[in-house]
Specification:
The structure is a homodimer. The first copy, chain A, is elongated and about 55 Å long. The first copy, chain A, is α+β, with helices and mostly antiparallel strands and about 110 residues long. Chain A has a 3-stranded antiparallel sheet with strand order 1-3-2. Chains A and B meet through α1, α2 and α5 of A and α1, α2 and α5 of B. Chain A binds a DNA duplex (30 and 30 nucleotides) through α4.
Chain lengths: ~110, ~110
DNA sequence: TGACTTTATCGGTATTTACCGATAAAGCGC
DNA sequence: GCGCTTTATCGGTAAATACCGATAAAGTCA
């Protein structure tokens, strides 16, 4: 990321993983994966592969990114990896955005 | 992005800019900038520079990314560029996340 | 006009990301 | 055990990103 180590030190708030989560779903493929997963209780890597023309390894890596960001859970079932949405994370994200919007409303020019 | 041109063609929905917006705020510096801008009616590049130890050019470029994603507006005032939050965009983002969460709730194992 | 302020853009570099094919690992069913 | 399915990981490459300093552009103000 080539981000200077102290470039955020002026931030009074402790670092959180909101930006990480946003970054994770801020890719068209991963955003799509999340929406596909939201449509069903769970889905395996193969299911997600069916949604794209990408290689299996690429899809697997995208799932891994979502996992690392804490947005999905994995459960091993036989040879399959069963992925599912993590509500807490999604909820946190929703709250963050809502709070941001509310803050902006309070401080905008007209009110 | 090195994304195969047709990798999303199976997506029934037309492309939207949600992923672009998420990607834009999915960087710690830009996420911080957005939150800083939300705190005030408007802010110029110099104001944002004060929040970081990054160079002016770098901050300017981050602002440019946010602008391109449609998350902020710019108004020229003298030599200064006055940036402000775009509510519509933020609201769209909030709705998208909320809908995602709702979809997930409806389709989860215990729902 | 000339010095100053403010911001955008350019050129360059280092790092990260996104993708692929190949292969390894691990469970399933015969 | 053996072949099959499924997924993760490795090695490699191309592209995008993040940063910087230098400089240009454009308004302000004396």
């Amino acid at each position: 990321m080539d981000l200077k180590a102290d470039s955020l030190t002026k931030d009074s708030q402790p670092s959180n993983n909101t930006a990480d989560m946003l970054k994770a779903i801020g890719h068209p493929v991963r955003w799509r994966i999340i929406r596909e997963l939201a449509k069903r209780p769970r889905g395996c890597c193969g299911d997600m592969c069916d949604c794209f023309t990408l290689s299996q390894s690429t899809v697997s890596q995208h799932l891994s990114v979502l996992k690392s960001a804490g947005l999905i859970d994995v459960e091993q079932i036989g040879t399959k990896s069963s992925f599912s949405i993590r509500f807490d994370a999604l909820k946190d994200l929703q709250v963050e955005i809502s709070e941001l919007l509310e803050t902006a409303r309070c401080n905008c020019d007209d009110g």
